[in-house]
Amino acid sequence: MLIKRPDPIRAAEITDQAVYRARRRFLEGVAGAALAGLGLEASAGSPLAGVRRGVVTTDEKPTSLSDITRYNNFYEFGSDKTDPAKHAKDFRTRPWTIAVEGEVARPAIYQLEDFVKPHALEERIYRLRCVEAWSMVIPWVGFPLAEVIKRAEPTSRAKYVEFTTLYDPKQMPGQRPGLLGTGLDWPYVEGLRLDEAMHPLTILAVGLYGEVLPNQNGAPLRLVVPWKYGFKSIKSIVKLRFVERQPVTTWMKSGPDEYGFYSNVNPDVDHPRWSQKYETRIGEDSLLSRLTRKRKTLPFNGYADEVAHLYAGMDLRKYF
Ligand SMILES: Nc1nc2c(c(=O)[nH]1)N[C@H]1C(S)=C(S)[C@@H](COP(=O)(O)O)O[C@H]1N2
Ligand SMILES: [Mo]
């Protein structure tokens, strides 16, 4: 993975924060009013209805919408940070089905709308820390994954959840051999231990900045696990499979020494090719700031109070 400089922010986009605050006031107004559907049928940029303010885990300034939507990792659309915004423009996210299968009493295939409808949408402002040592602060809109898991009724054999992204080389140029091909094994697969998946900080996101998720950020549905490196937060999910054995994830397959199953943000365990002690906040720090050791990376990305107990007694150098 190469670290690339984001495009310069255009003056017109500096108003992001003001527009966001206005929209947030608007959303707070409509929350509690009768919902005119979820707005999910609409495309990226449409405001989501009925979003309530959720758990606030940081008072840091959200990264600009411009950086969040133009500095992406979504290898299905190319490995350059600017590729997903360019190549995911026409990605079709409707109709969309999500399969819930494996060790559950209630396996099902849902249409996206039916999958999302039972859940109240909340805003969650989380830090996202990439293994490449950059970070952002993103105001997601989503709902706890735990609600989906409870509805599926896992059997006693279910110990892990495996997530799969859409496989569609016609639409996803990164999945085809050629210039944008990345050599990863498709489809993209991720996994969580069941207790990590049930943790109240773990959400499925359908939007950000109060609006339907842009394609490059994983529309129509992506996972967000804020205490783990960004690659655990799998995009454009089509399947949740409950399993007994620890899943083999895409990044473990591509580099088992570099990417472990747990992938908890950990300043004390270096990536074999670079340190994890410091990070660069996109849009705020210069991309060289990691070398000047300005911004320290926090254990579990700052969520240690909430999640460290999940790993009590585990050697986190071994289970990295
Ligand atoms: N399907 C899929 N999901 C993915 C990726 C990917 O390449 N494919 N990249 C991951 C990585 S490395 C990061 S850092 C985050 C980036 O999310 P963002 O672009 O919304 O900031 O998405 C993760 N989810
Ligand atoms: Mo990442």
From TrEMBL:
> Which SUPFAM superfamilies did the record assign?
Oxidoreductase molybdopterin-binding domain
Q: What Gene3D superfamilies does this protein map onto?
A: Oxidoreductase, molybdopterin-binding domain
One Gene Ontology BP term is: protein repair
Top-level class of the enzyme under EC nomenclature: oxidoreductase
Please list which residues make up the signal peptide: none
Q: Where is the Oxidoreductase molybdopterin-binding domain?
A: 92-251
Domain of life here? Bacteria
Quaternary assembly: Heterodimer of a catalytic subunit (MsrP) and a heme-binding subunit (MsrQ).
Q: Which HAMAP family match?
A: MsrP
- What NCBIfam families does the record point to? PRK05363.1
Described purpose of this protein according to its UniProt entry? Part of the MsrPQ system that repairs oxidized periplasmic proteins containing methionine sulfoxide residues (Met-O), using respiratory chain electrons. Thus protects these proteins from oxidative-stress damage caused by reactive species of oxygen and chlorine generated by the host defense mechanisms. MsrPQ is essential for the maintenance of envelope integrity under bleach stress, rescuing a wide series of structurally unrelated periplasmic proteins from methionine oxidation.
> What is the protein name given in its UniProt record?
Protein-methionine-sulfoxide reductase catalytic subunit MsrP
* The species this protein was found in: Sulfurifustis variabilis
